[in-house]
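Student: Please help interpret what follows.
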Amino acid sequence: KEYCDPYNQGLVDEVREVTYYPKGAIANSYFTDTFTIRKATRSKEEVGEEIPLDFTDISWKSDRDSKFLLPANWKGWTPDSGEYVMPKDWNKWADKNTTENKILPIDIRDEHLINWMNPAAFPSFTKLYAKVKLDPGSYTLHVAYRYHVHAFHGEKFVRLAETSWMGGRSYFLGSAYCIVGFFCLVAAAFFIVISRRTRAKRHERKKKIDEQLVHYKDQNNNAQSSTL
């Protein structure tokens, strides 16, 4: 509970205490920008055909199946429907959120919310928004700007990437794997050289230990014979 403060609980009508769901600062700072892609037109007055975006399977299957599940007593986010309400800062977009203009998640199983709730390892990060198939041609990207970042000197950018069965392109991960792999090869070569150079010494040391053990056993056998 203390990890989610001050985005853990709130008041409805300044009387009844309810629980924010989902809780915490990450959920409260949910990314509210939306994007549409249209075919480019010759004039600004013309509106190009909108390209459908695919929002399915953009999150991890394990998260959808076992991690982001609705509570047993879930009845919705409205204050009159139960003990849960949407996070505090979501209220500013609640009136503008419609089926046609979807800004906020429907519930905790929304895949945009699932991606956003997974904490990033670095301050600069990317979150998968959608999948799209585009034919060769010119397109325009329309951004509904709602998520303000100037207050904390942040930056936003849109990345279009070609993906394959191995995932998207990441120069950082590729470089990191190559560098780590190189150092692993150097370390392996170093230990092989050390092992080769010390093999004779280790063999000689083992031979001396074996001779000492044999000598010690012979002394014990002679001592027992003398006693008898």
